[in-house]
Structure formats: structure tokens, C-alpha cells
């Protein structure tokens, strides 16, 4: 199994921006921002959610939202407000919002192919 990273540009309050190298985590629902990044962007917690880690451990983290740009696609996305030591992860909700999918065979991002019923 390989690891795939992608650079994303985040924009928070007052149009403050920051570039982040995200690990694409196809098992994560939400995108996670390290504490130093979301603080720099001026993000504020809107609510607290409980998340279950791969080993079954439950943790609570604050959630907010910001604008994210990846592969020339940008939109607002929910983000987990990480704590000290948390690494940046790009989750599937953000990918779906942007209309991007991870190709599991060659570990690349590509535009989502939409099908009409």
C-alpha cells in the first residue's frame, strides 16, 4: 500500500491563506488541519464531534470550515481542528465536495466522472 500526498491551499478568516501537504486518507471522512494551521487561518470551533479511530479508540475534536483549493478546484469544506501532534489529512468528504476521486490503482487524484441516472 502506498501513501499519496497532495498540496492544498487553505483560506480562512480575513482571506489569510496557508499551503499544506495533505496525506490523502481514503478511510477518513473529514479533512484534519494541524493546530498551527487552523490557528493561523483564524478558524473557530463551530461544534464538537466524536470520531472513531482505526483501532476503535474514540476521540473528540472541534470542527469548523474553510475554503480549500486542490487541483484548481476550490470550495468550502468541513475540517477537524487538530491538536498538538496531529498531521494534516485529506478526507473523502472534501474530495467529494471538490469533485475529485483517488484512483486506488495508480494512487493519483482525478476528476470525478458524474453519471446521470
Outline the secondary-structure elements.
Layout: E1 5-11, E2 17-24, E3 31-33, H1 35-41, E4 47-52, E5 58-70, E6 73-81, E7 89-90, H2 92-98, E8 100-103, E9 108-111
Parallel strand pairs: 2-7, 3-6
Antiparallel strand pairs: 1-2, 1-5, 4-5, 5-6, 8-9
Mean of all residue-level pLDDT scores: 92
CATH class: Mainly Beta
H/E order of the elements? EEEHEEEEHEE
- Give the low-pLDDT segments: none
How can the largest sheet be summarized?
A: 7 strands, mixed
- State the secondary-structure class: mainly beta
Q: Quick one: CATH superfamily?
A: Acid Proteases
The CATH architecture comes to: Beta Barrel
CATH topology: Cathepsin D, subunit A, domain 1
Count helical runs: 2
Basic shape: globular
In percent, how much strand structure appears in the residues? over 45%
Counted up, domains total 1
Helix content: 10-25%
Radius of gyration: 14 Å
Q: How many β strands by DSSP?
A: 9
What is the CA-CA span between the terminal residues?
34 Å
Describe the structure.
The chain has about 120 residues and is mainly β. The protein is built from two helices and nine strands, in the order E-E-E-H-E-E-E-E-H-E-E. Helix content is about 10%, strand content about 50%. It has helices at about 35-40, 90-100, and strands at about 5-10, 15-25, 30-35, 45-50, 60-70, 75-80, 90, 100-105, 110. Strands 1, 2, 3, 4, 5, 6 and 7 form a seven-stranded mixed sheet that branches. It has one domain: Cathepsin D, subunit A, domain 1 (Beta Barrel). The longest helix is centred in the N-terminal third of the chain and has 7 residues, at about 35-40.
